[in-house]
Design goal:
The complex is a heterodimer.
Chain A (H helix, E strand, L loop, with lengths): L2 H20 L26
Chain B lengths: L2 H11 L18 H24 L6 H12 L3 H7 L3 H11 L10 H16 L14 H8 L18 E3 L2 E3 L5 H6 L11 H21 L1 H10 L2 E4 L5 E3 L6 E4 L4 H23 L9 E4 L4 E4 H23 L7 H20 L6 H20 L2
Parallel strand pairs in B: 2-3, 3-5
Antiparallel strand pairs in B: 1-2, 4-5, 6-7
Amino acid sequence: MGDDAKAIRDERDSDLLDDLDKLEIVEASELQEGVAFHAFRFRAPGPS
Amino acid sequence: MIRAVQDTLLSYLGSGPDPGRVVPYECVVPSGELTREVVLPLVARRNMRDALRYLCGASVAVDVRADLFDILSDLAHDEMDTFFTQPEVTDWVDRVRVTSPIIRRPNPNDLVLLLIAQYEKFRGNVPDRLVRYAPEGEESHRRIAGYLLRRDSDNPDGVRLPVLEVEGISVQGLPCVWLSVNFPEVDWISVQSKSEIRQRANIVAAALDLTERSWPEAAAELKSIVRWIVPLNVVESFNVPAMRGLLAFDALSVWRTSADLVHEASHNALSNLLDLFTVSRSPLDPVRSPFSNESGPLTSLVHSCWSFTREIELQRRFVRLGMDIPRYTSTWRKTMKFFELAEQVLGAHNSFTPFGAELVRGVLDRAGAIAREGL
């Protein structure tokens, strides 16, 4: 990609990010469940 | 990316349903309609917004991003709702939000593959220009189209396992591309034989039927949320909060599978609300839970009260249908005692927002009504 094309892309991305920040998306003001779980809460298989 | 594509995506994001339709005091009563029409569309918009933010990052190849945005902009709003609340997509987006050395950053190409698979499910085909994402030509392309959202893969012996769907819910364990990559610990616990998966899927179907007959509203809500069930070879049940819509349980008895479905899907339902609404200003404050007899975050105790209120209500409905539920009376008494203790713990906590206080009051009032009405 040439420098000009990259500059245009960066500008569009920046515009989109600005637009995304302006949106009023419904969401909790802070994470209500902390770091979400990314694993099954399985117990490791034990000897018994 | 051309401006028209951006505008299409922004138009979707800006057109969410009215969150005022969510009445916190009434939320503990299951509702398929509220889930489908309000909660999931709002969760989908939040997920999509965070995905787009990440994809605007410099590390994402510009052509990959352009293709992604282009396919997305071709989806109808209800299709975007579905895509952005799929378990794999929720998991992908959650990895965007969480910064932890033990959590793998999401790969943009994975989202493309998920989107191709979703597109193929909606439209029955995949645009030719997306074939290039299949590195080995047409055969691989077909496989990619069936990748992930069909929860389909070959096992090491080359035997294709059945992809069973029960009322639109996949019943599929390992081998599975997404689970193997993202949840390696599931290996030892998931049912893997073809006949076992069929047997468990039959039990899930019977459990859905039982839930429908016992509590139609609960059945409607869980059918809106649950997309994938992983049958386990141990008597346990789980939900994975970051992979909303995926449940894992043994599915060995019909009534207990119905209870597991309602209980675990209820956790998902509350997690959806916690994504959208601030319930507590100190949600992670440690409190003692009478349910687990351990200390855990405040919102975990709210989760327990919420899901057990619904599960005990379901079991009461089973009994009223004339079913014999093992240890029902002792379970009922024990659970009611837990609610009494939980009410003391939650009542002493003053960090709840007005929304959270109403939601907790609704849960505890429902539990209190069940206690007064008796077995």
